[in-house]
Specification:
Blueprint: E1 2-7, H1 12-21, E2 27-30, H2 40-49, E3 52-55, H3 59-68, E4 75-78, E5 90-91, H4 100-106, E6 109-111, H5 115-130, E7 140-146, H6 151-160, E8 170-171, H7 181-187, E9 195-201, E10 207-214, H8 224-234, E11 241-243, E12 268-274, E13 278-285, H9 289-304
Parallel strand pairs: 1-2, 1-3, 3-4, 4-6, 5-6, 7-9, 11-12
Antiparallel strand pairs: 7-10, 8-9, 10-13, 12-13
Helix pairs in contact: 1-9, 4-9, 5-7
């Protein structure tokens, strides 16, 4: 049985990973006392004793934790932003391409993608890869997420502070420097950094990205149904990615889109809407599931050579 340690186990992502692992029958979780969570000597001992270490820490702390591992055996799964675009780290979207699972399986260092990035890349990358969507297309990505994506501090702000300002959706990262942009650009295969407009709203979890496209700016004319068909073919057989049929009105709730419809799962659902002139790609996921801790556990399963669905919910 593999030994697993979560460095940063008391944060939002760490707690969620612990919940997944508590139902996982093929790993033993090494738990550190709360009082010792910042003791470098104790953490170092736990890390070097583990087969897999999850890093659920701020970027700089994650980089420091990597330096504590002094053996060639321990594998690391980092949930921070620190290593996502580093060449020596595998990027943790198994569904990215046919080769990605094997890259993850053979790697000792895997970076868990960001929640906005996972949804965006899974919608865009296949279309860029096949040439339907030009790499230099002037993309705009709009994303809305629940406040749990901001971690403990933001959760406390929304749940404990009575502030009228927090009752309405809030755009942020308006200077176009959001930390997910580098990984979206790199792993979607884009030659031009997209405009990215994230929004946090007053509900706990659930995330959806929407990406508008003009058909006359594609490499050649494609009806939105064509894009839907290609995405369906690309993700055929995937356990955690579903592409819904084009034009299915049952996907909408009173004509609107339910962005929390994938909560409590490790799934990403993709949708294509639109007409002959304008297309909207959409992707939704649980920002704490496939957008964070669920993805981390899925990568762990692959790295350990066990069924990647183990311990995960649909």
């Amino acid at each position: 049985m593999s030994k697993v340690f979560v460095d940063g186990q008391h944060g939002t992502t760490g707690l969620q990973i612990h919940e997944y692992l508590s139902k996982h029958e093929q790993v033993e979780v090494l738990s550190i006392d709360f009082e010792q969570r910042r003791d470098i000597k104790v953490r170092k001992e736990y890390m070097n004793h583990a087969d897999i270490v999850f890093l659920c820490l701020p970027d700089e702390a994650a980089k420091q934790s990597v330096e504590l591992i002094e053996n060639d055996h321990t594998k690391i799964i980092d949930a921070s932003t620190a290593h996502r675009t580093r060449e020596e780290w595998a990027y943790g979207i198994p569904e990215l391409c046919k080769e990605q699972r094997n890259i993850i399986k053979k790697s000792k260092r895997v970076a868990v993608p960001g929640c906005h990035a996972t949804a965006s890349i899974l919608a865009i990358a296949p279309l860029v890869r096949v040439g339907i969507l030009p790499a230099d297309y002037p993309l705009s990505i709009h994303s809305i997420t629940g406040y749990s994506g901001g971690g403990k501090e933001m959760i406390a702000k929304y749940e404990e502070v009575q502030d009228e300002y927090l009752k309405t959706p809030r755009h942020y990262a308006l200077t176009q420097n959001h930390k997910h942009l580098p990984e979206i650009t790199k792993y979607a295969g884009l030659a031009r950094t997209p405009l990215f407009l994230p929004t946090v709203s007053n509900y706990y979890k659930g995330l959806a990205v929407s990406i508008p496209l003009y058909t006359d700016l594609l490499s050649k004319y494609h009806h939105p149904k064509d894009l839907c068909s290609y995405l369906t073919e690309y993700y055929e057989g995937e356990n955690f990615v579903t592409v819904h049929p084009f034009g299915d009105e049952s996907l909408l709730l009173d004509g609107g889109f339910d962005l929390a419809g994938n909560n409590n799962s490790n799934r990403v659902e993709l949708f294509v809407f639109g007409n002959q002139e304008r297309i909207v790609l959409m992707a939704r996921l649980d920002n704490l599931g496939k957008g964070a801790s669920g993805a981390a556990v899925q990568n762990m399963n692959i790295m350990l050579g066990i069924d990647e669905k183990t311990g995960l919910i649909g």
